[in-house]
Amino acid sequence: MTTIVLVQGDITRQSADAIVNAANSSLLGGGGVDGAIHRHGGPAILDECRRLRASHYGKGLPTGRAVATTAGELDARWVIHTVGPVHRASGGDPSLLTSCYREALRVADELGARTVAFPAISTGAYGWPLEDAARIAVEAVRAMDTAVEEVRFVLFDDRAYEAFAAQLG
């Protein structure tokens, strides 16, 4: 049984087996959570992302998919990069956002990760409405058959924390 924990704070300060990055499809860093993970994790993450782009993901990582790299200087073994959907561009298709959580947990299982820290995927610049994103995230994790023992949602502010707390009841 997976335990779901909520934490308000900075995902780059978490200690976990795997930290999930709300990446862009280029895998080469960006703003928000993606930029923070690359900055705090150091150049080793970008180096592995460049190798992934040169081999398996020449056109970038597709929306809803996930792939792992080293965590560099973060207090984790791995970073699991997943590309969330842009709300307006996807038409608000919940299956794409659900896929981010399922795929990240699938990769975590392949790695043997037991603790995984997630941000609120797609709720920043990608514009997914927070309450809907929280519902999708919690439902996706609860429905997933995974060996991950703890899923930690690391939420940046009060509003996000409260949206996720409301979903956990």
TrEMBL record:
Q: Which SMART domains match?
A: A1pp
Which SUPFAM superfamilies does the record match to this protein? Macro domain-like
Put simply, this protein is called Macro domain-containing protein
Give one Pfam hit by family name. Macro
Instruction: Write down the species.
Output: Streptomyces nodosus
Q: Which CDD domains match?
A: Macro_OAADPr_deacetylase
What InterPro entries does the record tag this protein with?
Answer: Macro_dom, Macro_dom-like
Q: Where is the Macro domain?
A: 1-169
